Amino acid sequence: MTDPQRVNIGEQHPAAYKTLIALSSEVEKATAAAGLDPLLVELLRIRTSQINGCAFCLRMHTRDALKKGENPDRIAVLPAWAETGYFSETDRAALRLTEAITNVPDGHVSDEDYNAAAAVLTPDQVSAVAWLATVMNAFNRVAITSRYRVGN
Questions:
Q1: What is the spatial distance between Cα 135 and Cα 128, in angstroms, rounded to a whole number?
Q2: Which of 20, 23, 101, 143 could form a disulfide with 133 if both were Cys (CB 3.0 to 4.6 A apart)?
């Protein structure tokens, strides 16, 4: 694969990137205020990045999750979360909603996916998860578009 010279859009428009970082900080506060486990928050970031294929964010949030004490087995099976016993009802609801939001072209967050999440999560948690997925999708697109380097 050829790697043409890419503009780092965060550096090219730093005010916009700083605004995204500020939004991310507000979303972090919202997830905490909604009572979402910080480990779950990292898993949601990882799952969004897996779907989007963002190596930079995958590496960063996997490292963050491990530092916070996440079980490596849960990270390993995250793409198949629905087939395992590693995840609580809250985890499953948040993962399902995050996937629906990330895969919005596949069904525009169907009523089935939304209602399944809303049956388990509080309105504050639904909103926090939705904002987290929205911000994470934005960061994935910044990193992918700018071709943030990972490894060699």
A1: 10
A2: 101
